[in-house]
Protein 1
Amino acid sequence: MLQRLDETAALLVVAGSALALAAAWYFQLVVGLAPCPLCLDQRIAYYVAVPLGLVAYGAARGGRVRVAQVILGLLGLAMVINMGIAIFHAGVEWRLWEGPTTCTGAPVMTGNVLGALKGARVPRCDEAAWRLFGLSMAGWNALIAAGLAVVAFTGATTRRKDAGAA
């Protein structure tokens, strides 16, 4: 397993990212929970991780271990940034600090915006739409991103023991 840890890490990052996106889209399209702007920002790392993780996997399989490790390192960094956004979002939901005025403040109405917004529910970043065991989706996302960061950094820093891994 240690000989192929870079490949395994790449596939785990791809699978974890795809599952996180599937869950987000499930909650949005099936359950009906519209994402706020911070929720959408948290999806970016996963959208990037799926194709880049596949590239890292292909590079590792093709013997380009250094390329795979660099990509895994970048994916780990992306997940750390995503974790930071998720922690910030969870803190906004718990009212530990102020969030962006674009999704927590009172909307600014100009022109016929009020008419356009009739019947539309604008999701707010400071209201957790769903919680499990006390954690909101942002809290769970922080844990998922942290786990994927550990996987990616482990794959990026572990050397292969086979001869072709220079």
Note: The chain has a mean pLDDT of 81.
Protein 2
Amino acid sequence: MNQSLAPAKAAALFIVVVVAWGINWSVTKSLVQAVPPLWTASIRSWIALAALLVILRASGNLIVPRLADVPVVLSVALLHMTFFSVLVAAGLRYLPASKGIVLGYTTPLWVALAAGAVRSERLGMLKLAGVASGLAGLCVILNPASLDWSNLHVLAGAAMIILAAICWAANIIYIRSHRWVATPLQLLLWQVLVATLVLTTMALISEGPPRVTWSPHLALLFLYSGFIGTALAYWAMSMVNKSLPALTTSLGTTGTPIVGILSAALLLGEPIDLSLAIAAALIVGGIALSSLADAPARA
């Protein structure tokens, strides 16, 4: 079934997605303290795969992709679901979740910079202002008063999450040029399947068989991250994208870092210092300006 939702239902579902994604950064931070990053990403992906198999079969969206859609399946599976997930998980071992999510959501800024560099899009004044604001926020969060530059692990964590954001940006740039045969929702299971197999192979080679000390708390964290933060969120966002204007979803997703910062403070006790608040405001504001600049093109 590919029917759109009523605007009110789509908006409510969108809020659920933003909250689920925001909280998922704190959940991932907790998971990587107990399980190595590759196995964290892999186990979560297996849970998401099982859930999506049920969801997509029940909704009639389970198909075999055409050859023309294989590149986009591989692009999303490798750049976003594999590299982005692993780099974020690895980076969060050394970086607070609140700072990690702000760095991770610099993705639209890298998309704008790359599009301007290859001249596939024109960087007007509004978008330039958005990119400048985002880069200023990046400088604020990376300054020595905010991050301990004497700790190489902290610097490596920040670098990994910025690299994750760049991988996500590369995926977005490819998606924009892809000519879809099936819908993104119909290809979702295959993207997760490829990512799951790659993640598991990487984990076995790099970290060996999983040595996990299971507890009810750890199991609940994995269930949340795999089922709610990944499978349900991906499905819900596909439904939202079909039901709400693109500008609404672009601006709405800027709420995810805010939710992430607040949830990290509430769930993990991470402080919200001045540098973090200023950086978040600049980066979120920059993304909002870039989204508004894209509005005429979307229309």
Note: The chain is about 75% helix and 0% strand.
Protein 3
Amino acid sequence: MVGKKKVALILCALVAVSSFVACAKKEGDKKKIGISQIVEHPALDSARKGFIDGLKEKGFEEGKNLEIDYQNAQGDIATTQTIAQGFVSNKKDLVLAIATPSAQSAYNATKDIPIVFTAVTDPVVAGIVKDVKSTGTNVTGTSDNVSIADQLKVLQKVLPNAKTIGVIYTTSEANSGVQVKALKEEAAKLGLQVKEAGAATSNDIDQSLNSILGSIDVLYTPTDNNVAAAYDLVGKRTLEKNVPIFGAESAIVAKGGLITAGIDYYKLGKEAGYQAAEILNGKKPSEIPVGFQTDLQTTINTDVAKKLGITIPADIEKSAEKVTGGVN
């Protein structure tokens, strides 16, 4: 017969083992997601937050059944490649790639691990999907591509006398090239001239911008990561020359831009989170179409409008979100 003390010890040991197994199982059940972001700026940060919130809405929460490894490349493309390779080595269950360079590096690193992107303007041109309806790869996501034609309609309502549009963009960013091409095509239909200010790196933005500010009526800022990271500088330089900024996304407006008719990056990221949840539940990325936003979000900086003496049309002003600041 086994003594009571010995039985108690055996029971304690069994409880300890079962608890250890349960904890190990719980840890093993966590899905591991790697997030690669090209650079920190408000639009991309909002997309990342939306992604995490979208996952949470669908039952995947960090600290419970989700483990998130967030890494930022600080604008360096080589670093996005290192991050992607690290995610592959660590056998992540899914990768979120924020912006085109991060998405391209992730796709180059793996054709097996599911990849969800957000804030990529043209994923087909970027070479990460074959078609937006059926991607044909281990990649899907949400695009920040917006209708340039619709944006120009808003611009002409607000600035009817503008004839020359300047555009500042990074020459090495594929998504920026797509937007500039579309801008030139749509502007030509309206009889508007476009002057380009291409910058190879963020260090070239100031010089490139100054080369066109004296000869344009308005500056258009596309969804460009290097330009977004330099919004403080861009806003300051344009206001010094009394040139209004029309932006493709709202973060520029708080930095001295006049108006934007663009997309909501938080909602864009949230939609990517929903897609990721579908994949974690067993769906293939190739079965999920690339998502697009069709409704433009209009944001106006009332301080900038006042400084530049611009009256916003009543129909636009009524429905727009208002911000202040950015005027020094």
Note: The mean pLDDT is 91.
